[in-house]
Specification:
The structure is a single chain. The chain is of the alpha+beta class and 173 residues long. Helices cover 28% and strands 32% of the residues. α3 links the parallel β4 and β5. α1 runs antiparallel to α2. Strands 1, 2, 3, 4, 5, 6, 7, 8 and 9 form a nine-stranded mixed β-sheet that branches.
Length: 173
Amino acid sequence: MITIRPQQPEDAVQVRHVNEQAFGQRLEADLGETLQEACADVLSLVAVDAGNAGIVGHILFTPVTIERAERPLAGMGLGPMAVLPEYQRQGIGSRLVEHGLEILRQRSCPFVVVVGHPEYYPRFGFERASTHDLASPWDGVPDPAFMVMILDARAMQGVSGIARYRREFDEAG
């Protein structure tokens, strides 16, 4: 049985392993650790397989702001999200996304952005950010891959601009 819960400090080694295995490299694991060390306002969830008491999935949400003429609007960015290869295609990633989005709704977060597979994220309600006049901060991100989910339509009314992730994302590449 898989359960979703907040990441605990003692989960760090297993979370790193999940990210390294899922992505086949250290970049996302390094980025996740750096973000969690540098930023108190993150939402980090893990998927735990009670059968072997191990962490098999991880998702991280970090602060993002939309630059605009008035004051910036704060929301969250989804990523990285990882599931061990042998546990993929079992709905664990979907459960992590859904659980995280529900927590962010309860926290009155106005929006969540993601750079990801345009075939995967729309099932949760993500849509092209460009349809809301929101832009990725990075050159080379294909329009369909930069998506947004509006959680508070009233707060997002008339909002447009560039979604700025934390500087650690820029430094990771």
